[in-house]
Amino acid sequence: MDRRELLMGLAVGTVVPFVAGCTAHNEALGRSQLMLVSDAQIAQLSQQTWQQSLQQERVTRDASKRNQVNRVGQRIAQSSGMTQHDWEFVVFDNDQVNAWVLPNGKVAVYSGLLDVAGNDDQLAAVIGHEAGHVAGRHAQERASQQMAAGVGAGLAAVALDQGGVSNAGMWAGVLGAGLTFGVLLPYSRRHEYEADRLGTDYMARANYRPTEALTFWNGMMARSGGSGGPPAFLSTHPSDAQRMQALQSHITSSGYA
């Protein structure tokens, strides 16, 4: 084995115990998660992303839309019990049928989605789902997965080039990519199921009708059947028949139907 192979092996071997020691139990999900990103790091990255979004997007001047989203959003936030976050709900004046959340409780709803959601209950399904991602710490988990995937190659490169493992630039880059993948690109199917389940629980606690979640998501699925491709919301929140079955099962077993 030459020096290059030895250093590569040592770098990759370092990852396994490092990653194994960085898990945390999530009570909301009832499972452990890989957590390589601290709350402070994710909060800083989230705030930066939120400020950039406020600069790049146009906030609606429609008071009725702003009031609706804030009214529903605050009820969902309260029912979720996540009072540690400074929740903020903003409507962007954009025809896209889309919504997203950052891990620090900043929620963006596009005006195009409000034209599709038929009532407050259906809007609560969307915001409840997004709150479920926050409770599930899905962005942190996905960022951590991205970091873990890059650690082996990063450590190997450092070992080969410098003979060390300290590289702040590499970590900052991975964290940034992690936030992008965790927020703006598709979550895993498991994350979507978990967000659906938590979201309907928050809807019920806030006295919204969880069955309207099925109405909304089925309507979104129907919209994706056209030749123009799925709405932006479905590109980041994949939906399928199995997901709807899981959501129906949870609503029924919880006595929400």
UniProtKB/TrEMBL annotation:
InterPro entries: Mito/Outer_Membr_Metalloprot, Peptidase_M48. Binds 1 zinc ion per subunit. The keyword Membrane does not apply. Its cofactor is Zn(2+). The keyword Electron transport does not apply. Residues 65-249 form the Peptidase M48 domain. Gene3D superfamilies: Metalloproteases ('zincins'), catalytic domain. PANTHER family: M48 FAMILY METALLOPEPTIDASE, METALLOENDOPEPTIDASE OMA1. Belongs to the peptidase M48 family. This is M48 family metallopeptidase. It comes from Glycocaulis abyssi. The lineage of its organism: Bacteria, Pseudomonadati, Pseudomonadota, Alphaproteobacteria, Maricaulales.
